[in-house]
Amino acid sequence: MKTTSSSLLLLELFFVIDFDDRTALHCAVAAGKLPVVEFLIEKFPDMIDCTTDCGETAACVATGLGNVKILKYLLNNGAQMKGDKTTRINILDSAFGSFEKAEGTIKEIISFCKEDGKPNRLKELIEDSHFGADRLMSKLIEDIPSVAMDIFDQCVYEETSLENRSYAEMIRNLARMTTRPTDVNEKSIQTLRALYGKNKPSLKKIQATEMFMKGENSFLVIARVLNVATATAEVYAIDGYCSGAPLSYQDLAPQFNLNNEEADIIAAELRRDNVSLRIVRDALQNAFSYNQIRLVLAALIRGEI
């Protein structure tokens, strides 16, 4: 059947129905009408990744509203999760600022990536964030720490994820301390060594650690000497140093570019009776790196603070 100009106009109005460039699909998702969503996708599959004027797809709307059933349906029907650098935003970015409300849908995204059989997918989604992986993860830790741990756990799939593995373990240990604060002093160096599990530190990790402790704090130099990537050299050195001799704040400040004021900020948090994930949140908001935070948490676990 030949399509008339009037029917084309109706179709255009159907796809874009308001001044925000929302489609009928966006409205159906916002209203929580799964049967309508299913009908629209069946009849107009190309509509699934249409964006509003602020870059939100229907999947973004479902994520932000915490509608797990609709999000699951959209993902199973090919809805995109990453941004496209032009109009479409990252599905996680759409929920930034309302992660508590979106906890169920973010869990669904994690589950979808896991079932998809592509271990890189979740890591790539985090790194694709407009806010940056560090800021996105710090917000997740602040709002829904248990989900943040799930993300860390799933992103650990190869040796290059050593940094994430160490950090995730530190967060987990810190969470345990909140329920048993009297056990803090019983946490020992064995906790840090357990980070490696069956993967004992390699010779290159040991060499990187030794170079770092002897004063070579240029990871470019360490990387060149050991023939590894700069980021890898940094992880090797700091993880090794973290597992080595006991640290104090006097040690931390000069070695890791923490001035006294910055060290005092973390120290004040660690001295509170109710140790919690707030430490990590506040430290991240003060622009400390993951490695700096991990070192401070290591000192806490060893009972030095």
List the helices and strands and how they pair.
Blueprint: H1 5-15, H2 24-30, H3 34-43, H4 58-65, H5 68-76, H6 103-115, H7 120-127, H8 133-143, H9 145-155, H10 162-179, H11 189-193, H12 203-213, H13 219-226, H14 230-242, H15 249-255, H16 260-270, H17 278-285, H18 290-301
Helix pairs in contact: 2-3, 2-4, 4-5, 5-6, 6-9, 8-9, 8-17, 9-10, 10-18, 12-13, 12-14, 13-14, 14-18, 16-17
Keywords: Receptor
InterPro entries: Ankyrin_rpt (IPR002110), Ankyrin_rpt-contain_sf (IPR036770)
Protein name: Transient receptor potential cation channel subfamily A member 1-like isoform X2
Describe the overall structure.
The chain has 305 residues and is mainly α. It has two domains: 15-157, Serine Threonine Protein Phosphatase 5, Tetratricopeptide repeat (Alpha Horseshoe), CATH 1.25.40.20; 189-302, no CATH class. The chain contains 18 helices and no strands. It has helices spanning 5-15, 24-30, 34-43, 58-65, 68-76, 103-115, 120-127, 133-143, 145-155, 162-179, 189-193, 203-213, 219-226, 230-242, 249-255, 260-270, 278-285, 290-301. The longest helix is centred in the middle third of the chain and has 18 residues, at 162-179. It is elongated, with a radius of gyration of 23 Å. The protein starts with a helix and ends with a helix. The model is unreliable at 1-13, 157-201, 239-252 and 269-281 (pLDDT under 50). It holds the Pfam family Ank_2.
